[in-house]
User: What shape does this take?
Amino acid sequence: MCLFEKISKKHLASESLGSQIWGALLKRWWLITVLLAMVLVPLLVPKTNGDANMLFHQTWYLLLLLTLLVWLAISVCNTLTNIFNLRKKEAGITWCQILILGALIAWLFGFLVILNIQKDSRYYLAIGIAGSALAWVFQDTIKGVVAFIHLRQHHLLCIDDWIKVPKFNVDGEVKRVTLTTVTVCNWDTTTSSIPTSALHADSFTNLQKMREGKTYGRQMINSFILDTSRFHALSPKEVERLKQLRQTNEALQCLPEEEIKEGVFNAALFRTYLFHWLMNHPYVSQYPFLVVQWLEQQESGMPLQVQAFLTEGRIASFEWQQSQILEHVMVSLGWFGLQMYQRPPFVERRSGDA
Assistant: This one.
């Protein structure tokens, strides 16, 4: 590792923006050396025909100098973008990407000025055709720039946000945002890179506020298909059994005793019990809504749907609480004489069977 690279790393690790810029410049020390040589050599050469700066009047020389300057500016901005991504400095990322865009625009205008291209110039038609072709080739990049500005202006995407993009099978944390691409580390430990324009053109879901507990929680929607052959009104014997069970079963105590009476539909009583149990669950939010409802009858049975918001938004915690709720539902069905529908096993008929 050369001396410049060591000094560059030291400055890039600093908290000072000026020191970071200086470190990013030193990282491209060879490019700076070339630029200085291109500027100093014409000034140091002997006069030729009375002009010491003859190279500065050469079109190719000025174009090369402009290109190297723009290249240096973009390289510095990309280096700073990496640093700001690691430190989650959203404003720094935005300004770096804007400067990259500004450098590209400056190169384009400089190109036109150096060539002195005017409407009556012989280059005008050729430049117009070339510009149209470049616009077509780089249309995705142009869309990405528009999308980046839109996302940053409305604070729709930040580093470490949890996003879902179903079209690209993306589900994970944002690790890098640039003018053209968004890099996401998925929960299955894979990494996805998607066009920034895709987040503007197609729908995506940002779950970060829910994850940080700034909403009512993460929504859980589950349906249980119950066997309708077990639906019936409660007999006096069943009422007595449930009341005795309620005295020893802590979970059943959330169901008001007056609800348990002869003639009550067991499926309706179970729905009432499940609603009260979820109302008293420590990880279930009562807002914005808590719904336990019957869905449309199916051939296989009657679906009972539960819609609730769990206050545990992180994947592991959410899935754990959701699984415990599902397990409780399956166990408590038997208390009310109910069971979930299960398709009978298919038995292949042999030839000759009646």
